[in-house]
Write a structure and sequence with these properties.
Layout (H helix, E strand, L loop, with lengths): L1 E5 L6 E5 L10 E2 L2 E2 L7 H13 L9 E10 L2 E10 L13 E5 L16 H8 L1
Parallel strand pairs: 1-6
Antiparallel strand pairs: 1-4, 2-3, 2-7, 5-6
Length: 127
């Protein structure tokens, strides 16, 4: 899995709320998704951000930041997190219930999937 911390000019991060009917519905997460066979993590993020948020991102604008590892039901999740400060378009909640721009410290108060929680401290240091 890949995810991105989109950082706006004010140092806020974009999080999206998982929709009803999906696992972990209602939790806030970083945008991203699954890597398809034959796809690089960067190409997967470019595709996912176009599909999920209707924004255009260049692979060169994705900076690898860290990863998280977590047991998830019957499998193990390895989440690669990138940081991106440059994109084209305005993010829209296409596959999410809602979008929110938050300061890194505000992430501690959001209900997030277990794999996302360990990433908060690093993002506080980066942004």
């Amino acid at each position: 899995m890949v995810a991105v911390a989109l950082v706006d000019g004010d140092g806020r991060l974009l999080v999206q709320q998982r929709p009803e009917g999906k696992s972990m519905a209602g939790l806030w997460e970083f945008p991203g998704g699954k890597i398809e066979p034959g796809e690089t993590p960067e190409a997967a993020l470019v595709r996912e951000l176009g599909e999920e948020l209707a924004i255009d991102v260049e692979a060169a604008c994705l900076a690898p930041a860290c990863f998280a590892s977590d047991a998830l039901e019957d499998r193990h999740l390895l989440l690669l997190l990138y940081v991106c400060r440059k994109w084209r378009g305005t993010p829209q909640a296409i596959h999410a219930s809602a979008l929110r721009w938050v300061r890194p410290v505000e992430l501690h108060g959001l209900a997030m999937p277990p794999a996302d929680k360990p990433l908060i401290g690093l993002l506080e240091a980066l942004v």
